[in-house]
Amino acid sequence: MSETSLDLDSLRLLTLVAELGSLGQAAERMRISQPAASKRLGMLERRLGLQLAERDTRGSALTTEGKAVCHWSEQVLAEAANLLAGAAALRAERGRDLRVATSMTLAESFLPGWVAELQRQSPGVQLSLKVTNSEQVAALASRHEISIGFVEGPAVPHGLSSRTVATDRLVVVVTRAHPWARRRQPVQLAELAATPLIVREPGSGTRETLERVFTRAGLQPVDPLMVLDVNAAVRSAAAASIGPAVLSAATVEDDLALGHLVEIRLAGADLHRKLRAIWPKTRPLPPAAETLLQIARSPR
Questions:
Q1: Is residue 172 domain-shared with residue 264, that is, in the same domain?
Q2: Quick one: which of 97, 127, 217, 228 could link to 233 by a disulfide (CB 3.0–4.6 Å)?
Q3: Name one Pfam family in it (predicted).
Q4: pLDDT the model gives residue 92
Q5: Number of domains in the chain
Q6: Residue 89 pLDDT
Q7: Are residues 230 and 176 in the same domain?
Q8: Residue 1 pLDDT greater than 60, yes or no
Q9: Cα 90 from Cα 293, distance rounded (Å)
Q10: pLDDT of residue 299
Q11: What is the CATH number of the domain that holds 196?
């Protein structure tokens, strides 16, 4: 069989073996069995006429030849990604199709106004929207499954381009019946870390931002009182006097105005954060996504 029959999955398997140092872990990452991965790597070696990896009980390591082939494979995979991304962008432009994913906070408090303005400026755009947490939005963008994503995490995921579209801040909220609501002095960050809180699920930008604040202060928070995957559920639990919650100020604006919740002053931490648009570095934004990005970045 000639070298021209190489398949991209075999090249990707080789790069994963180099990255993870284990054929089994590489197989798991590709969601195939280890015997299937071993067979695929063996076929690649036979096609090239080279031994690419050495296997033992401790794992798998690339040979000198394998490292060279791995380097070329990365270039081939990157160009293949560019080809697929370009084709997807052309399809999106041709079909006026805009696939968007956004974190919960942005979906509730920011995106509706952006989409309304997009429909005014580009009435022919066909928009599909997925609402999930920031970690999943980044995963969708990395797999080129969306045109653009919006996240609230404190860092830009690897391999993605980003632009800041807005700023936000987290607030600590309780009911008026909670002891913190009657305090004259602010709650210290160390006290917040020592208090069981109602929080969002792991992967949420809100949860990640709070955990990073604790980490930077050298604090280890206690286990959460309750973990919920929807902002509305967190608000409801806090309003039911179950315990303190930490949420975006934008999501509790009405609750604070109506007196259902009270914002607690916090000392020793800055809970401001950036909200970002993200998309793959290897993929140009289609026109509709570019328009949405400009709308999101416009002063309001």
A1: yes
A2: 228
A3: LysR_substrate
A4: 52
A5: 3
A6: 57
A7: yes
A8: no
A9: 18
A10: 75
A11: 3.40.190.290
Are both 116 and 184 inside the same structural domain? Answer: no
What is the per-residue pLDDT for 297?
92
- 231: burial class by Cβ within 10 Å (0-12, 13-18, 19+)? buried
Residue 222 tokens read as 């206690």
pLDDT at residue 86, rounded to an integer: 65
Whether 139 and 264 share a structural domain: no
Share above pLDDT 90 across residues of the chain, in percent, rounded to a whole number: 63
At 104, which CATH number?
3.40.190.10
> How far does Cα 206 stand from its chain's mean position?
12
The 3-state secondary structure of the chain, one letter per residue: CCHHHCCHHHHHHHHHHHHHCCHHHHHHHHCCCHHHHHHHHHHHHHHHCCCCEEEECCEEEECHHHHHHHHHHHHHHHHHHHHHHHHHHHHHHHHCEEEEEEEHHHHHHCHHHHHHHHHHHCCCCEEEEEEECHHHHHHHHHCCCCCEEEECCCCCCCCEEEEEEEEEEEEEEECCCCHHHHCCCCEEHHHHHCCCCEEECCCCHHHHHHHHHHHHCCCCCCCCCEEECCHHHHHHHHHCCCCCEEEEHHHHHHHHHHCCCEEECEECCCCEEEEEEEEECCCCCCHHHHHHHHHHHCCC
Is the pLDDT at 2 greater than 50, yes or no?
no
- pLDDT at residue 60, rounded to an integer: 85
Distance (Å) of CA 125 to CA 137, 188, 286, 293: 21, 48, 11, 14
The pLDDT assigned to 161 comes to 94
Each residue of 235-256: pLDDT tens digit? 999 999 999 999 999 999 999 9
